[in-house]
Amino acid sequence: MTTIRRFCCDDLLRFTSVNLDHLTETFNMSFYMTYLARWPDYFHAAVSPAGRVMGYIMGKVEGQGESWHGHVTAVSVASEFRRQKLAKKLMNLLEEISDKMDKAYFVDLFVRASNMPAIRMYEKLGYVVYRRVLRYYSGEEDGLDMRKALSQDVEKKSIIPLKRPITPDELEYD
């Protein structure tokens, strides 16, 4: 039986196999530690009965006013554990924390425009493409900013798509 629990420091030494996928964005250790310290409620691991990290989600809450939102920085599942709905469970957990605990208006994420399996999964989870970010990934590949409205956004304003693509320097960061 898989357990989903908060990510802990020891997991940083045990989750390398999850990041082996070429589509998974990897970060340096201090980046993971910052998320673990600042947004522990948004960092979870799916763990096997033997204690192996099968997947994880890392996110944060940011913005102001109607732009207050949960953000999925990374969600990844090791290849041998895919097709078990682990990513869906991890995404649902982050959405619930964003909605119920932090009263966010929406959850957003960025995905490579070429990563069709991930895009289809996010669409099944209720996400829509809000905008295209030109050359978002290493200045080469476009990214899609996908969003899902939460209960605070009664009129669903946060998911009305932009009519034109933007560049990374037009993104708002908090």
Question: What would you note in describing this structure?
Answer:
With 174 residues, the chain is an alpha+beta fold. The protein has one domain (3-170): 3-Layer(aba) Sandwich (Aminopeptidase). Helix content is 20%, strand content 31%. The protein contains three helices and seven strands; from the N terminus they run βαβββαβαββ. The chain has helices at 29-38, 86-101, 116-124, and strands at residues 3-6, 43-47, 53-62, 69-77, 106-112, 128-137, 141-149. A seven-stranded mixed β-sheet has the order 1-2-3-4-5-7-6, with helices on both faces. The chain is globular, with a radius of gyration of 16 Å. The N and C termini lie far apart (38 Å). The model has no long low-confidence stretch (mean pLDDT 93).
